[in-house]
Structure formats: C-alpha cells, structure tokens
Specification:
The chain is 18% helix and 27% strand. It is α+β, with helices and mostly antiparallel strands and 210 residues long. Strands 1, 2, 3, 4, 9, 10, 11 and 12 form an 8-stranded antiparallel beta sheet that branches.
Length: 210
C-alpha cells in the first residue's frame, strides 16, 4: 500500500501544529493580561491639565509595582481613581469647608474614571495655594513643572491652610488654571492609585522618561 506523498502532513501533525499555535497565542494573551494587570499599563492623556509636561493625546506607560512596596513621592506623576466628587454630575468636596481653602476631604466613594496628576502634598502636611503655587508647611514649593497663567481661576488662590489626612495625597495638575484636582475634590488615599507614569512613548518626538 502506498504511503503519504513526500512532504505531505498527516492529520495528526496538522492538529498538533494548530494546538501549538493556539497555545502560543494563549500564552501571549495571558502574558499581556498579566503585564497590564500587575506590571505596566499604557495610558492616554485625556485633557490639558498636565500641560506643558504632557499634552492631550500623548501616551505614557504606568508601572504598577512601586506603590505595592513603597509610598508615592512628591513630584510623582500618578494615574489614579479620583473621588466620586470629581465627576461632572457631582462636582463636590466630601465635607463643607470655607471657600478660600482647598477641599480637606474627598467623598467616600471613588469615581470609575482614570485621572493623571502630580503628587504635591504628602500625608500629615499642611497645604495652601497662593498665586497658583503650593505652599507646604508655610513654605512655597519649588515647582519647575507648573504652568500658571495670569487669568488663573479662583482655585489658584486658596490661602486658608488645610492638613492632609494620614494616608492621603494632595494631587494637582501642572496646568494650574486648567486642572480640576485636589483643590476642588480633596486629597486621595493611596489605595485609589493605579500606578506611576514613568515613560512616554507617543508621539515619537516626546519619547523618553518622565
């Protein structure tokens, strides 16, 4: 009886090839899921609140490891879930407070939206805002990243000092006149942080570390 033609694959070998391909695809998808869930996640800048550091549409990589073992540092650019009070249909601080002070407490519920801002105030510190600049424990913070336009809104002048609660961080956008941030809806707990933005990969002319 004649055997299979030279070079022809048996049904068993074809099935083995398909199974191998499916295994490779499955492993690749699983690895991508693990990387995004636990290690690194891409993020697109949605607004002008971080200009000139990050432009609308710019893309960054966010690492999700550092804050599992340590605490955020001042100046870190962080992707996080803001409080529910940051949502347009709520737009509220978590507690009543004087109009000339930053919001001292967020709403207890968090939003489902992802925000990106910079860590400005740390737990236990006192903070106020004068002329768009943050003052920490009575001293003006050096902020080379900040953009402060002459027509900055009322949130650029909040002279009544508040104390940041333990375990909470005061977040602000670099573009002080165009950022809705902790000044309006309060500091956020560390557990709402997704990760630290550390590298920008798009557009090509902006590729590099943050």
């Amino acid at each position: 009886m004649a055997g299979p033609a030279a070079g022809a694959k048996s049904p068993r070998s074809r099935l083995a090839g398909i199974a191998e391909l499916l295994l490779v695809v499955g492993l690749a998808l699983g690895l991508a899921f693990v990387i995004q869930a636990f290690l690194v996640k891409p993020f697109r800048i949605p607004s002008e609140s971080m200009e000139p550091t990050l432009d609308v549409g710019q893309r960054v990589l966010v690492e999700r490891v550092t804050y599992r073992f340590g605490n955020p540092s001042r100046g870190d650019i962080v992707v996080f879930k803001p409080p529910r009070g940051a949502d347009p249909d709520v737009s509220a601080c978590g507690v009543s407070h004087p109009e000339d002070s930053p919001c001292p407490r967020p709403t207890p519920q968090r939003s489902d939206t992802n925000y990106i801002k910079r860590v400005i105030g740390l737990p236990g510190e006192r903070i106020k805002i004068l002329g768009g600049h943050a003052y920490i424990n009575g001293r003006r913070l050096r902020e080379p990243w900040a953009r402060i336009d002459p027509g900055c809104a009322s949130t650029c002048t909040l002279p009544l000092e508040i104390r940041i609660p333990k375990g909470y961080y005061f977040m602000m956008g670099d573009n002080r006149g165009a950022s809705a941030d902790s000044r309006e809806w309060g500091p956020i707990p560390k557990r709402w942080m997704i990760g630290r933005a550390f590298f920008t990969y798009w557009p090509p002319r902006r590729i590099g570390p943050l």
